[in-house]
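From the pipeline queue, job 12 of 40. The input is one protein chain; the requested action is below.

Action: predict structure.
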Amino acid sequence: MTALAVRHWLDTGELDLPLPGSGDTLCRWNRLAALCEVDVTAGRLAEAHTDAVAILAELGGPPARPGRLWGVWAAEAPDATVHARENGNSTSLSGTKAWCSGAGLCTDALVTARTASGARGLYAVDLSGPGVAPLPSTWANAGMADSDTRWVNFTEVAAIPVGGADDYLRRAGFWHGAAGVGACWLGAARAVAAPLYRAVGQRNAGPHADAHLGAVDSALAAAQSLLAETAAQVDAAPRSNAEVAARRLRAVVETAVEVVIGRTARALGPAPLALDAEHARRVADLTMYVRQSHAEKDLAALGVLVAR
């Protein structure tokens, strides 16, 4: 389902979104949320593709060709490092990259790698070329299992530099992309909450379901309101540092996710989780997806920023 959904969206133009900061950022984020509302895992892969397209545009990389699915493989792990080597006019990557979502699904990826000076460079890689070897999956959780997230080995893989050293993290769009992930969490949360809305509407829930839905609905509405406000800020000043706005949005959406998952389960009991495969999958996927947040570490970073 996940691979077919992403391919369908790619082929039908569903992933051709306005660039962040182009004046229609809310449309971009609302469409990402809608994709995750349909399929959390497919939406997560779609977000990565659209983020890659935005990064390529921002940093002057090669344009994404039609029909090609991109990933962004930028996670850093102490036991998995990729090194970039320049040889005249060519660049190659060697090493192991961790947490590569869409390892066997993507045709191309933006990969971060350490340069000879120790800086972090960003490189465009055709994953069908020689030297790219996804490792066997070690994924044990049902959540996001279809994202095909694996470690990938690179052996002298041809790569195209995108931007300069450390530009991936320094660019204004880094935080635009982080906010876009929050939009995806929000869409997935709406999907998880849908059975509670239906149960209360049909008067087919327990005595406290109305109160649980009130809490869920207000949390989702608050997150959507901040999403719109943040999009407007990005469009008004697309080159400004949006770190505070993005961190605040992600924190608010993460809280809404916790409210939705917890209160929906408390209101409806174990039946949907045990008997409704689609709902159970969405809960598992969203529970894993939202862990892209760094929890208290992210909250602490926000606290430091807003206290200045």
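Job complete. The mean pLDDT is 97.
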